[in-house]
């Protein structure tokens, strides 16, 4: 493909993004704050430049994959005038508010802005399972989607530049709580002589099967009627036995206490026979 592109930031992720573009045949200009990171990419055909300004001038499409929100401003604030009329795709992790702030900054500078949330680690870029969420400029997404698809599945989530980040962080919230749940289970069985590796082999197919319940829970949450028949009730979901067994094993009960509190608030409010999905009411109304 002959779409020219510049990549700012050659950390682990920026380098993986640039390598995938080179593999797809895009003329790629790369820049990194400290020297010495472009060697492999130059070997793959990249043009390495010494300043971010040269990189911005080299291509209409500019990809930023820096450390954080502050580093994006540090690099791009002095280049606002040079970015005018170009497309900036920011794949640096930021909060939704920071993404919106950058979108406003870009709008002031006459720059088409697209924010992205990378749902992959560097080794996954360009491989199956990699996906990137985008929001912001619809025009930019449509125009460059074939290029973005070189990194993984690309999806567009609306003109509010903060949404890609919001969805990214929501998915990570689910991931971290699941990981904590897995580690808690491993700690429960450890005193009984099971290794974490043995527990992982049991837990992975179990938790994979349980993701089938997401849609059932979602149907109840979206419908807003927690009395729908066929659900597991809050009373049945009580984690008392799990908390007690964790305590008996001499480990912290924090992970399971958190879920138990969400359940208990609804039972205490008189909703014990409603379905488990009702814990969303505890989450929506902080206790
Ligand atoms: P690295 O730590 O490997 O690289 C950070 C990059 O940012 C380096 O190129 C560094 O330059 C540059 N940088 C930091 N501060 C500044 C600054 N003030 N001015 C200019 N450049 C700066 O991080 P990653 O490549 O892993 O991550 C990059 C972004 O991608 C992050 O926002 C991260 O959250 C996101 N991301 C990463 C994932 C991962 O698994 N790695 C997954 C999803 C998103 P220098 O070499 O000069 O220090």
UniProtKB/TrEMBL annotation:
This is 3-hydroxyisobutyrate dehydrogenase-like beta-hydroxyacid dehydrogenase. Residues 160-285 form the NADPH-dependent reductive aminase-like C-terminal domain. It comes from the Bacteria. Keywords: Oxidoreductase. Belongs to the HIBADH-related family. GO terms for molecular function: NADP binding; oxidoreductase activity. Residues 5-157 form the 6-phosphogluconate dehydrogenase NADP-binding domain.
């Amino acid at each position: 493909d002959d779409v020219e592109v510049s990549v700012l930031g050659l950390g682990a992720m920026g380098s993986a993004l640039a390598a995938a573009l080179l593999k797809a045949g895009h003329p790629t200009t790369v820049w990194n704050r400290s020297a010495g990171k472009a060697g492999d990419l130059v070997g793959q055909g990249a043009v390495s430049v010494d300043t971010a300004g040269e990189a911005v001038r080299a291509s209409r499409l500019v990809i930023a994959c820096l450390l954080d929100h502050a580093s994006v401003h540090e690099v791009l604030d002095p280049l606002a005038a040079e970015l005018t009329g170009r497309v900036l795709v920011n794949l640096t992790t930021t909060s939704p508010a920071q993404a919106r702030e950058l979108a406003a900054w870009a709008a002031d500078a006459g720059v088409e802005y697209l924010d992205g949330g990378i749902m992959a680690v560097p080794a996954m870029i360009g491989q199956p399972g990699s996906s990137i969420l985008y929001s912001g400029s619809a025009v930019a997404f449509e125009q460059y989607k074939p290029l973005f698809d070189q990194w993984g599945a690309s999806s567009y989530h609306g003109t509010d530049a903060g949404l890609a980040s919001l969805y990214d962080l929501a998915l990570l919230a689910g991931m971290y709580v699941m990981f904590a749940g897995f580690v808690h289970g491993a700690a429960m069985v450890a005193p009984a002589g099971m290794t974490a590796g043995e527990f992982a082999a049991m837990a992975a197919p179990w938790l994979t099967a349980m993701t089938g319940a997401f849609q059932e829970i979602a149907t109840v949450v979206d419908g807003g009627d927690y009395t729908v028949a066929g659900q597991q009730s809050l009373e049945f979901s009580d984690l008392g036995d799990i908390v007690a067994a964790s305590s008996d094993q001499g480990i912290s009960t924090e992970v399971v206490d958190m879920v138990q509190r969400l359940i208990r608030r609804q039972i205490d409010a008189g909703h014990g026979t409603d379905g488990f999905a009702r814990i969303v009411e505890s989450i929506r109304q902080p206790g």
